[in-house]
C-alpha cells in the first residue's frame, strides 16, 4: 500500500511540475495560437532569478518567498518584450512563431551561459523544505509537496482571474471568438499582451519551483519544453481543466511506466499514449466547440 | 485555431496560373551538378571535401524538408528521427561487417552481454541494410503520418508531436548503452561495404556518392513539383478544406510528402555515418532536428534549390564560425532564425521577388 501511494505521489509530483510548465503555454497557445518555444527559457530566467535573489538575501526561506513573485515579474516582462517586438507581427503565421521563438530561446540560453557560466548553479532549499512530511499513508519529500501545493495555487489563481475578473472575461472572449470580441469593443491587442505577460510569468514561477528539485543550468528550459507542449496538446486548448487533467495524467502515467520499466522507455511509452489518445480525441481532452472546419 | 491553417500559408503564395519555363531550373540543376561533382573535388583539399560531404548529407535532409514543409505546409520538427534511423541501420551494418562473420562489435564486449542481440542479425546482410535504410524511416513515417493526418491533427499539433517524437527517440537511444552504444553512439568504423575507410581515395568516393545522391533527390523532388501531385500538395497546404471538398483526401497527399521526406532523411543519415564516422543521440534529438530547418528557411522553403544552398551555407558558416567563436555562433544562429523567419519568410530566394514586386507597383 505504501509503495502504491509512493508511486502515486511521484506521479502527482511529476504532474505538478508539468502543470506549472504547461499552464502558461496553454494560456498563450490557446489564446493566440502562438507556439512559444522560448517558454522554457522564461522558466530558466525564473530559476536564475531565484539564484540571484539568494545571492542578495541570505535566508533561504525568505529568498524563496521573494523569488516567486519576482520570478513571475521577470518571466512576464521577458514575455511582454517578446510579444511587443516579434510575436505581434506574426499572429497570422503561427507555425513560424515556433521557429522565431526557438531562435530567441537559443539567444537566451547563450546569454545565460555568458552571464552565469556554463556549469549548473545550485539554489539552497530552505530548511523547512529539506526534510520529508508524513502524510499518514506515505512519507513524501517536503519540497515536492510544496511544488504540488504551488501548482494547485497557481491553477486556482489563474482560474480565479479567468472567471471572476473583467480581464479574465476579456481573455475568454478573445479565445472563443477573436473577431466578435473585437467587435464588442475589447482591445484584443491589449488582451494579447496581458495574456502573454501572465503566461510567461507563470513560466517564471515554474522556474523558481524547479530550483527546489535540482540544479539550474542554461538548458533547464529545453528539458521541459517538449513535455510541456505534449501536455498542452493532450489537454486541448482554451480551458485550464484540460491542461490540469493532462498534466497529472501524463505525470502519473510516466511514474507508473518508470516503475515497471526504465525512465527512457517510459518517455517513449508516454509519447505513444498521447499519439493514440489523439486518435480518439484529436482536439485533446477538452476543446471549445466551434463551427469552423479547422 | 480556426484560421490557423488558412493563414499559415500567406508566407509563400506562389500560385502562378501560367506554367513557368523550366529552362532556368534545368540550368540550375546542371550548375549544382557541376559545382558538386567537378568544381568541389578539383578545388578542395581532402579534409574540406569530407566536410562538404557532411554538409551534402544535411542538404539531402533539407530537400525533404523543403518538400514536406515548404510545399506541404507540414512543419516537421522530427526529421532527426528518420536521419537517425537511417544512420543507425547503416552504423549497425558497418559494425557487424567490421567484426567479421559471427563477430561481436567491440562496444558490446565492453558494455553488453558480449552477444549480438537478435534484432541486429538481419543487418549483417548488405542488401537488407540498403533496403532498411529507406524502408525503416519510410514505414515509421507512414505509420505516424497515417495516425496523425487521418485524424486531421495538423498545424501546430503536428509540429509538436513530431518534436516529441524526436525527444522520445533520442531518450530511447541514450538508454540503450548495451545494444546501441547509448550516449557514445556507434563509431570507429573501418570499412564501408568492403572498402577501407582510411583510404583517401575511398573517402573521395564517398563524397561522390553523397553528391550524386543529393542530385538524384533534387531530381525526384523537381519531378514531384512538376507533376499534378505537386500542385495538389500546394493546394493542400493553402486550402486543405477546399481540396477535401473537391474529392481528394488531403491525408494521403500529406502522407506521401511526409514519407518521401523521411526516406530522404534516412538516406542522408546512412551516408552521414561513413563520411563522419560517428552517429550518436546528439545528432538526432530535438536540437539537431530543428537545426535542419534553418538552412531551409534561409534558402527559401518552397523553392527547389533554396533548401540545398541554404543547408550547405548554414553548415559551412557553422563550421567556420563556431571553430573560432563558439558563443558568437549560437547568437548568430538564433538571430538567423528570428530575422529570416520573421522578416524574410521566403528566405533569400524571396529577396529577388521583393524587388520585382516593387518594380511592378511602381
UniProtKB/TrEMBL annotation, chain A:
<protein>
    <submittedName>
        <fullName>Urea ABC transporter, permease protein UrtB</fullName>
    </submittedName>
</protein>
<feature type="transmembrane region" description="Helical">
    <location>
        <begin position="50"/>
        <end position="82"/>
    </location>
</feature>
<keyword id="KW-0812">Transmembrane</keyword>
<keyword id="KW-1133">Transmembrane helix</keyword>
<feature type="transmembrane region" description="Helical">
    <location>
        <begin position="145"/>
        <end position="162"/>
    </location>
</feature>
<dbReference type="GO" id="GO:0006865">
    <property type="term" value="P:amino acid transport"/>
</dbReference>
<dbReference type="InterPro" id="IPR001851">
    <property type="entry name" value="ABC_transp_permease"/>
</dbReference>
<dbReference type="InterPro" id="IPR052157">
    <property type="entry name" value="BCAA_transport_permease"/>
</dbReference>
<dbReference type="Pfam" id="PF02653">
    <property type="entry name" value="BPD_transp_2"/>
</dbReference>
<keyword id="KW-0029">Amino-acid transport</keyword>
<feature type="transmembrane region" description="Helical">
    <location>
        <begin position="194"/>
        <end position="216"/>
    </location>
</feature>
<keyword id="KW-1003">Cell membrane</keyword>
<feature type="transmembrane region" description="Helical">
    <location>
        <begin position="228"/>
        <end position="253"/>
    </location>
</feature>
<keyword id="KW-0472">Membrane</keyword>
<dbReference type="GO" id="GO:0005886">
    <property type="term" value="C:plasma membrane"/>
</dbReference>
<keyword id="KW-0813">Transport</keyword>
<feature type="transmembrane region" description="Helical">
    <location>
        <begin position="94"/>
        <end position="112"/>
    </location>
</feature>
<comment type="similarity">
    <text>Belongs to the binding-protein-dependent transport system permease family. LivHM subfamily.</text>
</comment>
<dbReference type="GO" id="GO:0022857">
    <property type="term" value="F:transmembrane transporter activity"/>
</dbReference>
<dbReference type="InterPro" id="IPR017779">
    <property type="entry name" value="ABC_UrtB_bac"/>
</dbReference>
<feature type="transmembrane region" description="Helical">
    <location>
        <begin position="265"/>
        <end position="282"/>
    </location>
</feature>
From TrEMBL, chain B:
<dbReference type="InterPro" id="IPR043428">
    <property type="entry name" value="LivM-like"/>
</dbReference>
<feature type="transmembrane region" description="Helical">
    <location>
        <begin position="255"/>
        <end position="279"/>
    </location>
</feature>
<keyword id="KW-0812">Transmembrane</keyword>
<feature type="transmembrane region" description="Helical">
    <location>
        <begin position="127"/>
        <end position="149"/>
    </location>
</feature>
<feature type="transmembrane region" description="Helical">
    <location>
        <begin position="156"/>
        <end position="174"/>
    </location>
</feature>
<feature type="transmembrane region" description="Helical">
    <location>
        <begin position="291"/>
        <end position="316"/>
    </location>
</feature>
<keyword id="KW-0472">Membrane</keyword>
<dbReference type="InterPro" id="IPR017778">
    <property type="entry name" value="ABC_transptr_urea_perm_UrtC"/>
</dbReference>
<dbReference type="InterPro" id="IPR001851">
    <property type="entry name" value="ABC_transp_permease"/>
</dbReference>
<dbReference type="GO" id="GO:0015658">
    <property type="term" value="F:branched-chain amino acid transmembrane transporter activity"/>
</dbReference>
<keyword id="KW-1133">Transmembrane helix</keyword>
<feature type="transmembrane region" description="Helical">
    <location>
        <begin position="23"/>
        <end position="43"/>
    </location>
</feature>
<feature type="transmembrane region" description="Helical">
    <location>
        <begin position="76"/>
        <end position="94"/>
    </location>
</feature>
<feature type="transmembrane region" description="Helical">
    <location>
        <begin position="205"/>
        <end position="225"/>
    </location>
</feature>
<feature type="transmembrane region" description="Helical">
    <location>
        <begin position="328"/>
        <end position="355"/>
    </location>
</feature>
<dbReference type="GO" id="GO:0005886">
    <property type="term" value="C:plasma membrane"/>
</dbReference>
<keyword id="KW-1003">Cell membrane</keyword>
<dbReference type="Pfam" id="PF02653">
    <property type="entry name" value="BPD_transp_2"/>
</dbReference>
<protein>
    <submittedName>
        <fullName>Urea ABC transporter, permease protein UrtC</fullName>
    </submittedName>
</protein>
<feature type="transmembrane region" description="Helical">
    <location>
        <begin position="49"/>
        <end position="69"/>
    </location>
</feature>
